[in-house]
Specification:
Helix 1 runs parallel beside helix 2, helix 2 packs parallel to helix 3 and helix 3 packs parallel to helix 5. This protein has a single domain, classed as Aldolase class I (TIM Barrel, Alpha-Beta Barrel), CATH 3.20.20.70. The two termini are 28 Å apart. The protein has a twelve-stranded mixed sheet. The chain is of the alpha/beta class. The protein is globular and about 55 Å long. It binds S-adenosylmethionine and iron/sulfur cluster. The site of S-adenosylmethionine has 20 residues, from strand 3, strand 5 and helix 10.
């Protein structure tokens, strides 16, 4: 089997598949209140096209983990079936979804039965008014219900991803952690990255990992977890002696590019070898022109071979990618 290797000795085994660029929330760090110009329907891969590309990645290129994301993956009709077909592949990859959890309460059981292994739910606050301020929708209770349903359906460990914004929810880290621990959810804070459509991110106002840890340490005793971090982006800490843990994903201030094992497929069939890549490799056109599995696999290999050593956010010459996070697949 070939692998998706690059010139720096890394192999991509973790495939992030964006199922749609559309979303039913409008998180301020992700997209503007009015939403974005969505991809035209005919440019979005069909279920069959998607499953074919995933089967090439898992069957021919060494990918062993598939995470569905977006936009909001739960708004994609056919998600349960896509999960079922992915779970039927041989070798079968680990399958997870990153979601805002709107509608998860309705779907968690069916997703688990279809073969979904885990979910990551995005939740930045446990105060309804702050949730509405960040996401511009008053839907926090739906997320809370979705989390409970995921836990109940065995989609664990249920992880929560939280972004802290200065002056909005940066005073709420300890209460979110306390709530997550009470409910057996594994909380990870993610540093805000320059991936919003509005280009509003600023290095000097983002909340850093150091600040997140200081805020948590004011109320909890954190000890670095012993196990080696490997390619996992989160630095893990045990909370008050454990067993609970909290993670910090410091993509900006403590980049982990050297250990990156990810590759991305956008909803319109473009391979991206990094969230911050400035180039994409088009698989959709070749796929629709009748390319064989082997040809598509070769294109994929070339796309990853050119991966740069790092994202360069901290370089003066850094340029934000043209597509926002919601279109790339977070
Ligand atoms: N809609 C789904 C969700 O929110 O979980 C999946 C897509 S979303 C783009 C994936 C993750 O990216 C979420 O956890 C979200 O919080 C995170 N995210 C979005 N914009 C971000 C940014 N500018 N910096 C850091 N994380 C961001
Ligand atoms: Fe939607 Fe996720 Fe972006 Fe929020 S972070 S607007 S839920 S895609």
């Amino acid at each position: 089997m070939q692998t998706l290797s690059d010139a720096f000795g890394r192999a991509a085994t973790d495939l992030r598949v964006s199922l749609t660029d559309r979303c039913n929330l409008r998180c301020s760090y992700c997209m503007p209140a009015e939403g974005l110009e969505w991809l035209p329907d005919d440019s979005v891969l069909t279920d069959d096209e998607l499953v074919r590309l995933i089967s090439i990645a898992t069957g021919m290129l060494g990918v062993n983990e598939v995470r569905f994301t977006g936009g909001e993956p739960l708004v994609r009709r056919g998600l349960v079936d896509i999960v079922r077909r992915t779970a039927a592949l041989d070798p079968r990859p680990e399958i997870s979804v990153t979601t805002n959890a709107l509608g998860l309460a309705r779907n968690a059981k069916a997703l688990a039965e279809a073969g979904l292994d885990r979910v990551n739910v995005s939740l930045d606050t446990i105060r309804a008014e702050t949730f509405a301020e960040i996401t511009r929708r008053d839907r926090m209770q739906d997320v809370v219900a979705g989390l409970a349903a995921a836990h109940e359906a065995g989609l664990g460990p249920v992880k929560i991803n939280a972004v802290l914004l200065r002056g909005v929810n940066d005073d709420q880290a300890p209460e979110l952690l306390r709530w997550a621990i009470e409910h057996d959810y594994h909380l990870r804070f993610i540093e805000q990255m320059p991936l919003d459509a509005q280009h509003g991110w600023r290095r000097d106002t983002m909340i850093t990992a150091d600040e997140i840890l200081a805020a948590l340490e004011a109320e909890f005793a954190l000890t670095p977890a012993q196990e080696p971090r490997g390619s996992a982006p989160a630095e893990l800490f045990t909370v008050d002696g454990g067993p609970a843990t909290v993670g910090v994903i410091a993509s900006v201030t403590r980049p982990f590019c050297g250990d990156c094992d990810r590759v991305r497929l956008t909803a319109d069939g473009q391979v991206r070898n990094c969230l911050f890549a400035r180039e994409e490799s088009d698989l959709r056109t070749a796929l629709r022109a009748g390319a064989s599995d082997l040809e598509l696999a070769q294109r994929w290999v070339s796309a990853v071979a050119g991966k740069l050593p790092g994202h360069g956010i901290n370089d003066p010459s850094f340029l934000q990618p043209t597509r926002p996070m919601s279109a790339i697949g977070g």
